[in-house]
Design a protein that fits this description.
By secondary structure, the protein is an all-alpha fold. The chain folds into two domains: 73 residues, no CATH class; 144 residues, no CATH class. 60% of the residues lie in helices and 0% in strands.
Length: 220
């Protein structure tokens, strides 16, 4: 049993690190490009790379590595403020994603794939692994875990309700995304070298889920 649990933890940490570093760095480069340059003006990501002289994705990796190492030292209880801010931001962004999906359904109607379309869905197994890992790390937003809880008898209730609310929230986001985007064939952003791609909104679920909301006010 001990080795079984250790194996699960190894797989979990591997998935969490891959997800956080890779998607974090991609989001950093992507967001920076579309903040500096206009969405409809050529290829913002290519322009940003020319501006830096190198792929800003690697700068994102360095930044995330720095903060990961920085926050790994010291007394973890001092991280309560960081945890609270992170919790608020995660609920805010997830809420905006849910609202964005509802707006999309209202404006354009639902567009979903069959639930058990294995020939299509097997190609996205790696993304399912990454997103599943992400679902399991939402408990990092429960700020009380890194701070003494008094009275201690409240700990079980706190953990139970945190997990229930987190599961409902993330489950709602996933279901709304499925109905709004899973059957879309357009891409949100043209990929390098793919000039034939049909670009528009609403669009299919992208590698970075936040790309689906580029044309929505606020979160876009």
């Amino acid at each position: 049993m001990k080795y079984f649990i250790i194996t699960i933890l190894i797989v979990y940490v591997y998935g969490a690190l891959c997800l956080k570093y890779i998607s974090g760095a991609k989001s950093f480069a992507f967001g920076l490009a579309y903040t500096i340059y206009d969405y409809n003006d050529g290829n913002p990501e290519e322009k940003l790379e020319n501006l830096f002289g190198f792929d800003p994705y690697y700068l994102g990796i360095v930044i995330f590595a720095f903060f990961s190492i920085y926050f790994s030292f010291g007394n973890i209880e001092n991280g309560k403020t960081l945890q609270v801010v992170t919790m608020i931001l995660r609920f805010l962004v997830t809420g905006l994603m849910c609202i964005g999906s509802v707006i999309d359904l209202h404006k354009f109607g639902g567009e979903r794939l069959p639930v058990f379309d294995w020939s299509t869905q097997l190609k996205y197994l790696a993304k399912v692994f990454g997103n599943t890992t992400f679902v399991f790390i939402y408990h990092h937003s429960i700020s009380g875990i890194v701070y003494p809880v008094r009275p201690q008898k409240e700990v079980k209730g706190m953990l139970m309700w945190s997990n229930i609310l987190g599961s409902i929230f993330l489950g709602t986001e996933a279901i709304l995304a499925y109905f709004a985007f899973s059957g879309q064939t357009k891409v949100c952003v043209a990929k390098e070298g793919d000039s034939s791609a049909e670009i528009g909104f609403p669009c299919q679920i992208s590698e970075l889920y936040n790309e689906n909301f580029l044309n929505l006010n606020g979160i876009g």
